[in-house]
Amino acid sequence: MPEEVERTPLAEDEAPGATALLIIDMLSNWKFPDADRLLESALPAAERIAALKARCRANRIPVIYANDNHGRWRSDFREVVAQARAEANGGGRIGDLLAPDADDYFVLKPKHSGFYATPLDLLLRHLRACKLVVTGVASDQCVLYTAADARMRDYEVTVPRDCSATQSAERHEQALRHFEGALCVATTASADLELPRPE
């Protein structure tokens, strides 16, 4: 189990059922190699992530965005969101679908994993969340690294198979097999996930 810490104002709430939803790298300008192929599969995934997020919010499960800052060290999360929503290449549609709410949490990440050089682990411990539902892109890159780092830290992880995407269906299926076989991570479809309810 992740180390227990004393409650502080870092997180106002305690996660119902010790569960949190992570959304990885869905807010983007989609201007990188192979972005067009990834965007094609990311759009339907974004719709399912939005539906899952709505269910989580209804149950007061905290939602955390872990988003790449693309090496732009003077940027902040609001700027990342604004740029994503301004895109006309489909990224704007994703930005609108997954626009953060005022009480959502976020971390900017410099590398693949949501945990690497970010306060994500500290935030989760203050939320007392030890069960993570990890969604986003790419399933065989940033989602994979984040899930692996979460498992290394003894979090219980689920990666809903329909709430992540990569550049091809074959690569996505390979990632799912790796989640299940190597990482012991469940890949339950989002509609079948049983979410804890607030007490």
From TrEMBL:
<dbReference type="InterPro" id="IPR016291">
    <property type="entry name" value="Isochorismatase"/>
</dbReference>
<feature type="domain" description="Isochorismatase-like">
    <location>
        <begin position="19"/>
        <end position="188"/>
    </location>
</feature>
<dbReference type="InterPro" id="IPR050272">
    <property type="entry name" value="Isochorismatase-like_hydrls"/>
</dbReference>
<protein>
    <submittedName>
        <fullName>Cysteine hydrolase</fullName>
    </submittedName>
</protein>
<dbReference type="InterPro" id="IPR036380">
    <property type="entry name" value="Isochorismatase-like_sf"/>
</dbReference>
<dbReference type="GO" id="GO:0008908">
    <property type="term" value="F:isochorismatase activity"/>
</dbReference>
<dbReference type="InterPro" id="IPR000868">
    <property type="entry name" value="Isochorismatase-like_dom"/>
</dbReference>
<dbReference type="Pfam" id="PF00857">
    <property type="entry name" value="Isochorismatase"/>
</dbReference>
<keyword id="KW-0378">Hydrolase</keyword>
